[in-house]
Amino acid sequence: MATPVPQRLLATLEKLDKATFETFQWNLMEETLEGFNPMSIASLEDASRHKTVSKMVQAYKKEGAMKITQKILENIGMIDLADKLKTEGKKDQDATPQSSQDQSAVMETKQYGAQFVDDNMEQLVQRISLVMPIADGLFQKKMIHYEDYSEITAAQTSMAKMRKLYVALQPGGAVAKSAFYQILLKQQSLLVKELGGVVQK
After folding, report:
1. What DSSP state is assigned to residue 16?
2. Among 14, 53, 75, 87, which one has the highest count of C-beta atoms within 10 angstroms of its own C-beta?
């Protein structure tokens, strides 16, 4: 099964030491590849490897993020790592039938959405004030039970509602969290973008 692009990029960046990773980020802020606009300093300030991958995919899409990562790795002398990334990508593409690629893309979206929801729990709990439209969507999709929906409705504050919503998501695992992420993309796209999520256009 093909490795999802964000996970492949993250695994590559995790092989860089701190100084090399900072050089990689610096290259992202420069004119590295024709047709790719430099990323802003603010967007990468104190950005972890995970957030850097999210920012690249958001700015350049998955294929573009792969291309610019390979180019920067070549520019900073990490030729073997660049070649490995390119070779692995080609092997996955050649070996995976189209139907499997489509299925992999769906799985990738679910995994990424669930990871985003887990990683940003504190911020989402504190900053989302309109909780009921989200709960309505999840209940309509049968991602949370009626009892949980009732408890969310009865909670007195938005933070209390969000905490109960997170508890309600747990039985559904990645599928429920991914559904939550998809609703966030529609209802809270600016917040998702601010937190480093990939906002689909």
Report:
1. S
2. 53
CA distances from 3 to 44, 98, 112, 171 (A): 25, 14, 13, 26
Tell how far CA 153 is from the center of its chain: 29
Residue 93's H or E segment, with its range, is: helix 79-95
Read off the pLDDT of residues 130-183 as tens digits, 9 standing for 90 and up: 999 999 999 999 999 999 999 999 999 999 999 999 999 998 888 999 999 999
Q: Parse the chain into domains and list their residue ranges.
A: 5-96, 107-194
Work out the number of other CB atoms within 10 angstroms of the CB of residue 88. 15
For the chain, give the number of residues: 201
Tell me how far CA of residue 63 lies from CA of 38, 157, 188, in angstroms.
16, 42, 26
Tokens of 180: 């939550």
User: Is pTM, for the whole model, over 0.85?
Assistant: no
Q: Please, which residues have CB within 8 angstroms of residue 77's CB and are 6 or more apart in sequence?
A: none
Distance CA 28, CA 12 (A): 15
Q: Evaluate whether the domain defined by 5-96 bears CATH number 3.40.630.30.
A: no
Alpha helices in the chain (DSSP H): 5-13, 18-28, 41-44, 49-75, 79-95, 98-119, 121-127, 132-140, 146-154, 158-169, 173-187, 189-194
